[in-house]
Specification:
CATH topology: Rossmann fold
Oligomer: single chain
Structural class: alpha/beta
Number of helices: 13
Distance between the termini: 40 Å
Radius of gyration: 19 Å
Number of domains: 1
Helix content: 40-55%
Order of helices and strands: HHHEHEHEHHHEHHHHEEEH
Number of strands: 7
Largest sheet: 7 strands, parallel
Length: 337
């Protein structure tokens, strides 16, 4: 169970050191959707030097809540219709599939949808878990799916608290789920929950039974927490006060833990041998084998949709897409005297 998600500064790091009273809530919301700007793979941060990225990835790769897994090289899948057809044929072979994204990369979203559409057309019927919906939205999501006739209606009735997402990227996936009558589950930790974790730790949102199920009853493993704290610092361009690193890192771990629990519960429905497969859509940081949701599972297929080839062992498969054009989110801080 590991988490590495990079964090956005665009629109989030508009803070000054004097504004500490309101900083906690703002930063919690910021990190929730931050991969959109600062990651190309995950741990690969736009505006951060190559040496910083290498240091970050090395530290992250050493951390584990469980025994480290072998670091085999990711197998690259061509970012083409043929490549997506191959991915579509591969996904149904696994009970759990986690598909990554760079949140603002339109090409990656389109390719991922093509692979999903082809697999569904061939008869695959997974439960669809989405990072874009918070777990406390599940009732509203169920009601919207039962009453709405299109994805725009579902989004309108469920995305009130899901600020920061570009729903144009996710509307086609929701349309697929509605067309094929897939169950859709809200997989993410909510902002208020994340804020409580920052302040009070994992026990603020997880029951003792859930923590035991996740292997977190004694808290995150120290190496994991240190690696995540390093990512918090780099993702905020080195401008985040050090005393907030641990809390923010713990909140990121809590997000991955929430997604893992969502998958476990969704896959647990049905009799043995007839349990539904589950596919998770989330940022590349969440789907890393070494630091993300797949750490809870031995039978998951992890697929990154990255902007540069991923380092060995991060994913089972890697779809490398053209980088999206975006400003350097650290430029404003780097230019300060």
């Amino acid at each position: 169970m590991r988490v590495i998600a990079a964090y956005s500064v665009m629109g989030c790091l508009v803070f000054r050191r004097a504004v500490m009273a309101s900083l906690l809530v703002a930063l919690t919301a910021c990190s929730e959707h931050g991969e959109r700007v600062l990651t190309g793979t995950t741990g690969e941060m736009v505006g951060v030097s190559a040496s910083q990225q290498a240091t970050s990835q090395a530290a992250a790769g050493q951390s584990a809540q469980e025994s480290p897994r072998p670091q085999a090289a990711s197998s690259v899948i061509d970012a083409s219709p043929a490549g997506m057809a191959a991915l579509a044929a591969l996904m149904p072979q696994y009970p759990i599939v986690v598909l990554g994204e760079v949140h603002d990369n339109a090409v990656g979203h389109t390719l991922r949808r093509e692979a999903l559409a082809a697999a569904l057309a061939a008869g695959w019927r997974p439960v669809l878990a989405m990072e874009q919906f918070d777990s406390d939205q599940q009732t509203a999501l169920d009601q919207a799916l039962a009453t709405c006739h299109n994805a725009s209606c579902v989004i309108e009735h469920t995305s009130i608290n899901a600020k920061g997402w570009d729903w144009d990227y996710y509307r086609p996936v929701i349309e697929l789920a509605m067309r094929y009558r897939l169950p859709v589950v809200a997989a993410n930790l909510s902002r208020p929950q994340a804020s409580r974790v920052v302040k009070h730790g994992l026990k603020a949102v997880f029951s003792p039974d859930a923590l035991a199920q996740l292997g977190l009853q004694h808290g995150p493993e120290p190496e994991l927490l240190r690696a995540q704290a390093q990512q918090v610092d780099q993702g905020h361009c080195g401008m985040l006060p050090e005393h907030l690193h641990t809390g923010m890192a713990t909140a990121q771990i809590a997000r991955d833990a929430t997604m893992a629990l969502t998958i476990q519960r969704a896959a647990g429905h049905g009799s043995p041998g007839q349990r539904p497969p589950v596919v998770l859509l989330a940022g590349n940081g969440h789907v890393r084998k070494d630091l993300g949701v797949p750490r809870w599972f031995d039978d998951a297929l992890a697929v990154g949709f990255t902007e540069t080839p991923a380092s060995a062992g991060l994913y089972d498969r890697d779809v490398v897409v053209p980088p999206a054009q975006r400003p350097n989110p650290c430029a404003a801080f780097n230019s300060r005297p």
